[in-house]
Amino acid sequence: MRLSAPRIAPLTDAELTPEARAALDAVPEFARAFNIFRTQAHKPAALTAFLAWGNYILSATNALPARERELAILRTGYLCKAGYEWAQHCLIGQQAGLTGTEIATIKVGAAAPGWSPLDAAILRACDELVLDHFITDPTWAALAELGDEGRMDLVYTVGQYTQVSMLLNSAGVQLDAILTPDPDLDHL
């Protein structure tokens, strides 16, 4: 967490406008109270658009298998120093098949031993996209197993979660009670 308090406080039920309520209705009921969505409810039209794109990124329509998608999301969140994103997707990543050891090793990146060639290429692509906004030819070639659609969806996924991380960090979105802070990303 970059900030110890929100710059933009999540809206309470009493503060929700009809437009904000309508936007939150598209969020699964269990998540409607999450700080990320209650903060975004300040801009209901943007929240609605965010959910449409985010739902694509997290759907089976995304050509990246769930485990590989979560690998990319976690690496992106870590590179962006987004404590909220990291904590939220540690849970989602485990549900998608990442082990606790793999999640911890995502912080090290592609150079860590034990990654498959494709996993290492995904992690390297995340580094290149976040740091240089470009996947190099060797990394692009190493991602060939994903096909063109998978490589495009990898770029889309990293882009989505870079944007989300920027909002979470800048607005000071704090962890929900169900999330565990990571000491490497706590109050940077």
TrEMBL record:
It comes from the Bacteria. It holds the Pfam family CMD. Residues 44-121 form the Carboxymuconolactone decarboxylase-like domain. One of its GO terms (molecular function) is peroxiredoxin activity. This is Carboxymuconolactone decarboxylase-like domain-containing protein. It comes from Novosphingobium arvoryzae.
